[in-house]
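Appendix B. One record, verbatim.
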Amino acid sequence: MTDALLQAIENRAAAASSGPWGRDGVRVVMLAWDGSHGDLVCRTEEDPRGADGDFIAAAREDVPALLAEVERLRGVVAQFVEAAEHALADRRTQPITETLLSVALKAAKAKT
């Protein structure tokens, strides 16, 4: 996932109505702090099982949580890459460790 795509998702999430959101039949609404129904976010008329409405309502909290997890995992990968590059630069590293780190480092860099 590119930085530009993540930024676009983050921008859409920031521009959307504040949450939390919930369902009221075919309507997805912003909920007041006391859990009562608030302003209409959208209607899901053609959603007999309610799955679309549930998905839309949950997206208000799910999308920011997923963005935060992507950011956290990118940080973990960056720390791993730095540690692996340092270990590979250390000539005292055992050959098997060097091979494993090289493979893992290639995989980590390919995913970022």
